[in-house]
Amino acid sequence: MQKKTHIKKGDMVKVLAGVDRSREGRVLEVDRARMIAFVEGLNINKKHSKPTTANPQGGIVEKEGPIQLSNLMLIDPKSGEPTRVGRKVVDGKLVRISKRTGEVIK
After folding, report:
1. CA-to-CA separations, 81 to 71, 85, 103, in angstroms, rounded
2. Per residue in 25-53, pLDDT tens?
3. What are the residue ranges of helices labelled H in the chain?
């Protein structure tokens, strides 16, 4: 069963724990089943690849690794500060709101 998450693709987030603690980045992908996200430029893993027709040189490829959603905090687009996320019904739709400012997050 997939749960609703406080983070969506394209959001700016701050990392709360781990090697990349206190760094910020944009979310590239969210896996709701495993409760992980891939954040641009954070948790970089190196993978050694053999030469192929697509990549004849081969070599070491750097790629973003997964980060648990519990270790990420949304950055409020209006204030630029990290904020907790709440939900509220506005005009018959459930929307995310910033707990810091009380404004709707699109």
Report:
1. 16, 12, 13
2. 999 999 999 999 999 999 999 999 999 99
3. none
Tens-digit pLDDT profile for residues 10-20: 999 999 999 99
- The answer to whether 38 touches 29, Cβ cutoff 8 Å, is yes
Cβ atoms of residues 62 and 45 within 8 Å? yes
- Which tokens in the block code for residue 97? 């709101």
Which pLDDT does position 44 carry in this prediction?
96
Domain boundaries, the chain: 1-75, 79-106
pTM assigned to the model: 0.87
Q: Which CATH number fits domain 1-75: 2.30.30.30, 3.40.50.150, 1.10.3720.10, 3.40.50.1860?
A: 2.30.30.30
The sign of the torsion formed by the CA atoms of 96, 35, 83, 29 equals negative
